[in-house]
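Hi team, as promised in this morning's meeting, here are the two structures we talked about. I've kept the exact order from the run log so nobody has to guess. The first one is mostly here for context; it's the second one we should focus on when we meet again. Sequence first, then the predicted structure tokens.
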Amino acid sequence: MRTRLVLALGCVFACSSAWAARPTCVTGTLASYIRLGAQGCTLDGITFANFSYSAEASAGARRITAEEITVAPQPVIPGETILGFSANWEVDKGQTLDSKIAYTAVLPCGDANPAMLELALSHAIVEGITGAVTVDESTNVGKLSVLDRCADSCETKPNASLQFDPVSVVLITDQVNLNGGIAGASLSGFDAGMDLCLVCA
């Protein structure tokens, strides 16, 4: 955590002429985003950088690698950006799978307006009467969670949002967790977004 904080603080001082030299975020693998390092890339004024990844699996489930995760930037409307993360996350009965993607988002210099974090599931399936697909987003400005799970009853929460006061850097960790339950579960992806212009919508 200390390393991420130091990297993030270094990004704060990047409001200079070198800022414009950062590449634009384009569709690629998570591995290619990791290789960008602290320089990162920009999308609609936000610099995304310091990507890292870890994965764990149990009971024979196959770990998803960074090369298998596609990152697709999606400018939607002025002030709103979305990073779409997609892969074939899948577990069978009794298996679990966990993928953790961490990165920083450096907001435009001098932006003093409230902003909104957004999180959305893509296609999630729980095959049996028990099992779960969840994506939790932990940040230095709050937490979000989206899910599709079944235990005593089934619950679905495909979208979540959180308004936050202006900051220079948002430290983000997106954690995908699948529990196969009695028949398996799968997820094709999720979208992590940020809206810097709430009055533009």
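And here is the second protein, the one for discussion:
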Amino acid sequence: MRLDRAALLFGAACCAATSQTGPVSPAEDAVRNWYQVVNNGSDQQHLADFGIIGDGPQPLERAYSSLAPTLRSRMSREEFLAGYRGLARLTLLQDHSMTGSSPDSERVLVEEERTMVLEGIPAVAWFEGLITVTKTSEGWKISELKDVKPEDIISTPIGGEMPWHTDPAAVAMASLHCEGAAGCKIKTKPLPQTTSTRPGKVTVQTPDGLYTVSMAKLHNGSWIVLETKQETGYVGK
């Protein structure tokens, strides 16, 4: 039976980091492959009232088995499955590999859509955060998942404490500490668009130089800075 979509209230969870665009990294490829395993998994035990959903818990169990040994040593199979209680379907919406990591460890920003049942109520929730991927003897494996948390889908769209997070120009300017600076201005027009694998970009002229700010737009409308890169061949005023 298909689950109806419904709004789900959750607390805020935002992250900011540096990002790398271009070819898919081994860590990013590992993340995408892992989500392909999870994709059709479901917590059938808590979905009995809705019939047979997906492939049951087997994909989730395989996903747990494919995590890095260091993560499995800290998190039991039961603890892992508890994090997906009531899950009917999970979709990876976007992923962006991060720079600034060591050669054997990388962070990847992900955004998920989860169709699930909470206290008997069908709902759709969006999660985002940073996944850590580590190079092991068996290849690149996910070694940390704890920072993937529910998005704030309530306060951000209606203003909340930081309504400027939904304005990509304001986010780009703030990342360069340009608030109120007379020598800063947006050079890119129109403002960026993102895809599931490619961040949007805004170019900002500052007194110190010309910068390209790469950003990702979440489902809740917030923009997250992924990378700030100074362009060469430009002399600031």
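Starting points for discussion:
The two ends are 62 Å apart (CA to CA).
DSSP finds five helices and nine strands in the chain.
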